[in-house]
Amino acid sequence: MTDIFTETRPGEAESGAAGERAGARLRVDLLGPLCATRDGLPLPLGPLKQRLVLAVLLTRPNAPVSLEELTDAVWPDDPPRTARKNLQVYVSTLRRVLDPDDLGRLHHGPGGYVLHLGADECDSLRFEELARCGDAEVRAGAPSRAARFYRQALDLWRHEPFSDLAGRADVLRAAVARRHVRRLAVYEAWAEAQLETGDAAAVADTVDEMVARHPLRERLRAAQITALHRVGRRTESLAAYDDCRQQLSRELGLEPGTAVRGAYRAVLADAAPPRPSGGATGPRLLPPGLADFTGRAREAEAVAARLGGEGGPPVLLTGPAGVGKTALAVHVAHRLAAHYPDGVVATRLCAEDGSVRPWASVLAELARALGCTERLPAGREEAATAWRSWLSGRRILLVLDDAPDAAALGPLLPPSGPTAALVTSRSRLPGLEAAHRTELPPLSPDEALGLLGGIIGRTRAAAEPAAAARIVAATGLLPFALRAAGNRLCVLRHMPLGQYADRLEHPAEALDELASGGVGVRTRLAGTWARLPLPARDTLDALAALPGPAFSLPTAARALGVEGRAAQRALENLIDVGVLPPPPCPEVTAHAASAEESVRYELPWLTLLFAREQASGRDTRC
């Protein structure tokens, strides 16, 4: 099998990556051994410690890296008294090597040293540029062009990033881990786009090696099962599903999720007769419910009551990223499965990186999962009509997770009748006029402490109650962040809770700490950020520059440089997209200069930290 680190395609790498570099004098590559060239000639990067300095700067190109970070990387145990002077010498030498014309490419500013590079000068920046182009083509419904961009990005990888240096500094090991997760996500996006084009052979040739590296990655497993099936290797496809099911059960105690089950059902559908409509039990394709599902009794009852009747408008669960919308939707769907004998199926409308999945792909997945053998038309309205006709008279529950807007739901929602839809969204979806809405707030402090104790052990949590309370407060009482913190503490079993609370309360460390298994809060927030309209990002940027998370309307107006009414509309837009919670009812006091001053808004703490990272240009990819 071709090694996926070194695979290139004739003409493609030249026209994609190398062709873009034509004429660029400086080139720095880190997706493999660290090297730099000018006009194709290698540059001397000096001794080990000097190369370490350059490598750490390259973990965050175009963003400041502090002197302390550089010191920790070069001398992790016992820095000499001359460390600062030595670093200045290394940086000065690198400046002469990389920037002989003194263009300010490497300079010291607020926050530390900054190495400025363009996408045509650094392979990792070019990788991200190509990946973003691929994402844009997916959103535009052009899988063939998307697959080409993703393939060009993947072809830039020569070997392990910093392969000659990564073992010498924690910061480099962490950077390499982030880049591997990012590369995996791009590979998965390429595989899905390639499958959309009808060319499964390229995926089938490389996916087994990727699965060997990431056997528990369900998105990757779904692509493997589908690719093997479509190239005629049905037995291997079924074996891949069985291997996935056994590994998930053995290592995580879980059943395969919606994507893997949908791919498996597509394989079976080639040989199985259509399911009879009378008296048969339909598919139950739901993620497993959480064994430690905590709280939400009132909201669960409200949603279940709306769905327990005969059809009706969609039920919409809204709230910010990480508040537990999906977990509640799955919990209720399992509870009500018996009410829907023709099937209960869940699917995501957005990918993990926040990009919107094409409606045709989602509709095809739902149809396959539910055993719909009719060929749906290509046109949006015609496909929606055929889909609703097929659903008519069937008692099916559709769980449509992470809807970006009302338009994405248009072709998928069932007609009036026994089929029901449970929708989750970060946005309030004002365009979905007839929906029954339930806003999901963060957990209560008691619920959050109960969830944390259930993950790390109630004895451990009870031994340091004040520290446990600080941890749940630092996560914003969000279940996703609490799970990330709890899983991290399960690894750091030796660490006192108070020490971990100190880390979470430090603005520069909190998002780094709230990560587990390669996916963390920063990734979830990045997906929200990617879907924000540009005006909403600008508003969030301005609010992030305020001293703290809480502010009044006049303060927001000054930060935005607009009048009060315009500022109010900007804040309401953030509320609509689920970034800013609605303010509590105002309480006018003697200290409030006006009714406007008494209305207090507050950005969620983790959202504020992420927005500040974006404003500072820090690399937020996980």
Automatic annotation (TrEMBL):
InterPro entries: AAA+_ATPase, AAA_22, AfsR-DnrI-RedD_regulator, BTAD, OmpR/PhoB-type_DNA-bd, P-loop_NTPase, Sig_transdc_resp-reg_C-effctor, TPR-like_helical_dom_sf. Residues 17-117 bind DNA. Gene3D superfamilies: P-loop containing nucleotide triphosphate hydrolases, Tetratricopeptide repeat domain, Winged helix-like DNA-binding domain superfamily/Winged helix DNA-binding domain. Transmembrane segments: none annotated. Residues 17-117 form the OmpR/PhoB-type domain. The keyword Ribonucleoprotein does not apply. Residues 1-20 are annotated as: Disordered. SUPFAM superfamilies: C-terminal effector domain of the bipartite response regulators, P-loop containing nucleoside triphosphate hydrolases, TPR-like. It comes from the Bacteria. The keyword Transcription regulation applies. Keywords: DNA-binding, Transcription, Transcription regulation, Two-component regulatory system. PROSITE patterns: OMPR_PHOB. Coiled coil: none annotated. Belongs to the AfsR/DnrI/RedD regulatory family. PANTHER family: TRANSCRIPTIONAL REGULATOR REDD, TRANSCRIPTIONAL REGULATOR REDD-RELATED. This is BTAD domain-containing putative transcriptional regulator. The lineage of its organism: Bacteria, Bacillati, Actinomycetota, Actinomycetes, Kitasatosporales.
